[in-house]
Design a protein that fits this description.
It is built from seven helices and no strands.
C-alpha cells in the first residue's frame, strides 16, 4: 500500500493493530474484516446480537426452500438437513467465504453454518426462530405431531 492512499493524520489516530486496507474509503470488507471491526468496536452483547441476527436470517432463507407446509415439519427437516451438512460437507467448506458453484440449498446451509459458527441447531430452536416473525402459525408441541 502506498503512503498517499491514507492521510497521515488518519493513520496517527488509529491503533497499529488495525489492518491498513480498512482505512481506505470504499474498501470492500471481507468476512474477517467485518469480524475484526465488530470485535474492536462493538460491546459483547452487540456482537452476540448481530451474530444471532445473521443466524436467524440464514435459518429463514434455508427454511423457505424446504417443501413442508407446517412450521414444525420445516424445522424438523431443516434440523436434519443442517446436521447432515455439518457432519459431511462443513469440514471441507468451512474455510470458504461462499459457495458460488453449489445449489441454493447448499449455499444456504453454508451461510447458516458460518453464521452459527459450525454449531448444530435443534429443531425446536429452529422452530422458535421461524415463529418469531410468524406468530400465528406457531410450532405447537401437542397438536402438531402428525409429521
Amino acid at each position: 500500500m502506498d503512503g498517499a492512499s491514507v492521510p497521515r493524520e488518519v493513520t496517527a489516530a488509529v491503533p497499529r493493530s488495525v489492518p491498513p486496507h480498512l482505512l481506505i474509503p470504499g474498501t470492500v470488507l471481507s468476512r474477517t474484516d467485518v469480524e475484526y471491526l465488530e470485535s474492536a468496536l462493538l460491546l459483547p452483547w452487540e456482537r452476540r446480537l448481530r451474530r444471532l441476527e445473521r443466524r436467524d436470517a440464514a435459518v429463514r432463507l434455508v427454511a423457505a426452500s424446504l417443501p413442508a407446509a407446517r412450521q414444525t415439519r420445516v424445522a424438523q427437516q431443516l434440523a436434519e438437513v443442517y446436521t447432515r451438512y455439518l457432519s459431511t460437507g462443513w469440514r471441507f467448506e468451512s474455510s470458504l467465504a461462499e459457495l458460488s458453484d453449489r445449489s441454493a440449498l447448499r449455499r444456504g446451509l453454508h451461510a447458516l453454518a458460518v453464521a452459527n459458527g459450525g454449531r448444530p441447531l435443534g429443531w425446536r430452536q429452529i422452530c422458535r426462530i421461524l415463529t418469531e416473525e410468524n406468530v400465528t402459525n406457531g410450532c405447537g408441541d401437542d397438536n402438531d405431531r402428525r409429521g
